[in-house]
Every structure is written in structure tokens, then in C-alpha cells.
């Protein structure tokens, strides 16, 4: 076992508490599920989880030091992430209700591929996730046990699994509620408007954070 069992348990409990606290990832998955159904909610979660794997690898490699050495790099990525969220929100509001007449694979207004890519890109462009991962994971690593990379990998796997379970459940439940509402055109337009507003709000929040 490359990790201390007590540290691993503490990590799992702390991570679970952090996951069930509503944040940008959960709200994003919620919006995707409401607009595209359970499958879109799950695939949005898969996109977020994939980006989490990238963040863990980046944190382990120490690449986040770039943000400390070049503050402008952090600002640039933060602004790009915020702009992308706002763009998604504006597009949803502009084309609200259009998903009702799309092809079957786009039923509900959001294809699975689009939900996955949006979840992946949105989370990848959030530098706070990288800095959080770098600050959080090392607290539960014991260099004295050796195999530090393996410890990072185990903790990263636990983090991603909990992310998928918690946010995936949110996405599926939101998708089922959204699926019932999407049979009513007026309600569907309101879902798109609310989801677009949610994404715009997240983008503004990210851009305003220091």
C-alpha cells in the first residue's frame, strides 16, 4: 500500500465533503443535465473528471509553478475560462428552445459529445482547479513512504471517482427533471434561458475572482 491508511481515509472524507458543497463544476453539470438529459449530465461529469486527471498530473509535475512565476499566465487562463463560460451561456440564450427540433442525437438541446467537451474545456481553463489540486493533494502524501508519483496517482483516482459519483448523480437527477419539462416548449425555453444565465454568472464570477 503506497499510502498511509489514515491519510487516505482523511483524504476521502475531506474530498467528499468538498464535492457535496455546490461549486462551479456541480452547477455546470446541473445545467447540462437540465438541458440535455441524464446522458448529457453524465458525459459532462466525464468531461470534468477527465480534466481533473490532467490537473492531478500537472500538479504532480509542478507545472503550476508557472502561475507563481508569471502571474499574467494565471490571469490569461482565468479570463479565457470565464469568456468560454459566458460564450456558452449567450449561445444557449440565443438558441433557446431550438433543441426540440434537432436530430435525435441532439435530443434535449445538447449532444453527449458537446456535453463532454464543454465539461472538459470549461474545467481545464479554470486555473484555480490546478492550484487547488497542488495545495490539497500534498497534504495527504507521506514522502517517507516513497513512490510519491504513485501516491499522487492513488489520491487522484479517489478524487476522480468521488467527482464522478457525486456530480454524476446530480447530472442524472437534473436530466430526469429536465426531460419531463422539455416536453413543454415554453418550459424548455425557460430551461435554456436559466441555464444560459447560470453559465454567464459562473463566467462573471470566475473573471471577478482574484
Please characterize this protein's 3D structure:
The chain crosses the membrane at residues 6-30, 42-70, 76-94, 115-137, 149-175. Keywords: Cell membrane, Membrane, Transmembrane, Transmembrane helix. The radius of gyration is 18 Å and the shape is globular. The chain has 210 residues and is mainly α. The chain has one domain (24-208). It has helices at residues 5-20, 24-36, 38-61, 65-69, 71-94, 112-124, 127-136, 148-181, 185-208. Mean pLDDT is 76; it is low at 100-108.
Strand and helix map with partners:
Layout: H1 5-20, H2 24-36, H3 38-61, H4 65-69, H5 71-94, H6 112-124, H7 127-136, H8 148-181, H9 185-208
Helix pairs in contact: 1-8, 2-3, 2-6, 2-8, 2-9, 3-6, 3-7, 3-8, 5-6, 5-9
Sum up the structure in keywords.
210 residues, 9 helices, globular
**What is the averaged pLDDT score?**
76
Main sheet, how many strands, which sense, barrel? none
* Low-confidence residue ranges: 100-108
Helical residues, percent: over 70%
Number of domains: 1
Shape: globular
Protein name: Threonine/homoserine/homoserine lactone efflux protein
Subcellular location: Cell membrane
GO molecular function: amino acid transmembrane transporter activity
Transmembrane segments: 6-30, 42-70, 76-94, 115-137, 149-175
